[in-house]
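Protein modeling request. Please complete all fields; requests missing the sequence field cannot be processed.
Requester role: graduate student
Desired output: 3D structure, token encoding
Chains: 1
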Amino acid sequence: MTMKNKEDSGLTWWQLSLIGVGCTIGTGFFLGASLAVSMAGQAVLISFVLAGFGTYSVYHFLAALMRKDPQKGAFHTYARKAYGRWAGFSSGWVYWGAEMLIMGSQMTAVSIFSRYWFPGVPLWIFAAGYSLLGILVVLTGAKGFDRIENIFGVVKIAAILMFIVVAAIAIFSSFHSPRDPLFFPQTGQQFIPHGGKGLWASLIYAFYAFGGIEIMSMMGVRLNDKKDAPKSGKIMLAVITSIYIISLGMALLLASSEAFHADESPFVTALNQYDFLYVADVFNGALIIAGFSTMAASLFAVTSMLVTLAEDGDAPSFFQKKGQNMIDLHLPALGLTVAGMLVSIFFSLLLPEKIYEYMTTAAGLMLLYNWFFILLYANRLVVIKGFSHVQRLGGLALILCAVTGTLLDKSSRPGFFVSVGFLIILAVVVLIMKRIWTRQSPPPF
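Delivered output (445 residues):
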């Protein structure tokens, strides 16, 4: 084996943990947390703890599968092994749909961040500009993309650490300044202003902030020691959950939960309460870079998933084709992804005030459908003992709560119906494909 092959194939557990942190932290937390706070108030911290447990439950079984049977296609391949080709086909396309919606959600989020400085500029103009920049990043190829994402990953962590430091200074100074009181809840009503219903409705946005463990499962095949997969996920999720709780808890101390809204990051809202010169602006700039990073990563991931589906015979073989000469990219797959971005831009033109809530809800639900499916088929592929039964059933229950909670809030319902519509269309396609599969061999594509 050459040195290059060794380098390409080997990951240590801590490298996989860092990749997980970089892929997970994004606009789902930097902006989506505002939606969760507006529903649950300071009790949103409970939502994030519950979502952290539910996310770990899913990763626990993915890690067990990675140890037992490492597969490049990860959850997509495991679904096929558990229930047959229809399951792998469905899992792959649900993930593709989720990533398309995530990409649109992130594109909208960075556009909202940009309007912090330019409130008069229409949302769709920023969305179009960031879409073009994202395409240019992907066109740099895999090596260029890796280098750019490594830089962006550092910015994400630095942004949160910067907020924690600045917020700590603000909290310390507030103890000595009566004009800047901290917002400690004095009653149950202050802690959870909208009751259990609000907490229930906020779960979807807490779960959405943890989206990214699927990429860890797909990259887990590159671990030097597959037995390190559980440790890698445990540490990654412990770090992320701690960061989320600490930073969001500080933001809720610095500003009233009523001040948070979907048009601004909760961290910018918190910092705006204090006279820190340019700090909110610098932090907003860091959020734009971090959000753009996750948007570009989703653009890359959704294109790669389409190529994988084509290679497995679950999408037209046309999407496997690459460009010629100097362009070593799957241009047909990228073309379909760009078409999806254009649809997102169109909706940001029609629904500039609500597009982020709709896309975030639908994207979070599509992710959770795949996570629910993973927990369903886990007992077919691995032996479940002891507390693992509690993890599996607890994860299933929490995901069901997050899904049904979207029906309790009018801003979440459209996203729910979008996700259900996608599932209905997919079910019809699967029924048609099952008839074709029974008649044809090899696969139809």
